[in-house]
């Protein structure tokens, strides 16, 4: 009982919530102008791979601030370097130019304050049950079994999988596996959730369901999210801001579009359509350059 | 449950067919004292069991296999894990594994007898030798096949290097280790017979050799059937283990 109460408190860190108005009106600023609001700062970040075949510039001069509680979608065509940006924020890869700051400190390698939801299901532990997968991060911290079970159970319910905790990943559908990944990342209570096209491999119906679920979960947990996608509708439906990238190689930020629409979002509303058209025009210009 | 019944019935029918073909081949085709049909062989096996001789030979061979196999596994699994985990270790040890892999255990019999005599040590050494390289290679391959995202997921949940190894790489590698052990067990049967043929006071290989010397054809066939049944049972055991530990998440095994 006590563990559960703590779990719910941890999932809803009210003290960290930034007032909604300020959050929605946060704009990116020039490099070096990181204000008190920014949780994550990307400052002129670039990544160039050097191999035997020469150099390949994946990402160039990306500057972006993420405020606490924001939901930012990084939108771009395939090969634009958006996953590379996420991998650098996660700490899986180091930038070859610029710097990435988390709470003012440079990012060095992966860490528990940045939870990642991967595109495929490879990242789940097949030999563990759904519940033990969710509890994995808590086990690493040495939490007692009863406490981590209670906490994992809370996040299992949060992602709508109540009663499925004893199943193994092989027994779950693709959508359920992504729910487990989200619960696993959230259970470790990260400062920011990094999501790499998490619904890209799902069918359209499941994807729409999970998008709605993610909006609800985000509203409940107020977690900061950086979400990678190439789906314009998904970006407009989920985010408080859409960061549009130019096409690769050497992709960079093209525009930052605030999405000032109420949740849950009505995809057929005029306001939604207007933002969709605006973002669509930006992406279309990348696919069919004049 | 129904699948299991079909499997068991199929196995029984398969063995029955095997003995039927043997019977037909020996009675109608070969018609030679050098190829006895199943019944005289079974009669002889009953006599050998009553005298306690067959059990003695089987136990002698199995004990050597068990000792050498456990020793080879105990040495091979950690080495395989180290090779799979650390590039310098791989560079250092790959010449060893790739060198000895091509010297079969049978070729090591002579040197083993010179070093250890014809007692237990030489046989245990040979079984361990034939086991260790298969397990090293299989284990190292398993470590290399761990999905990158599994390791990354653990890292961004705060895992230390040691935790990644213990809680991710090791369980993910377990099916590969068990598969390596299964292959090594088959190798061990080949090796134990060869070693006992050449230099031993007991065991199924020695039984084969003595039977040839004294032209006891039934004894030869008793030893052959015993080897086949023991190998079959050992292989089933490993398949069950692999399924218990890994089948849950690897339905192809």
Automatic annotation (TrEMBL), chain B:
The chain crosses the membrane at residues 7-30, 65-87, 99-118, 124-147, 159-178, 220-238. CDD domains: TM_PBP2 (cd06261). It comes from the Bacteria. Coiled coil: none annotated. It holds the Pfam family BPD_transp_1. Its main location: membrane. Keywords: Cell membrane, Membrane, Transmembrane, Transmembrane helix, Transport. It is a multi-pass membrane protein. It is found in: Cell membrane. Residues 58-242 form the ABC transmembrane type-1 domain. Belongs to the binding-protein-dependent transport system permease family. This is ABC transmembrane type-1 domain-containing protein.
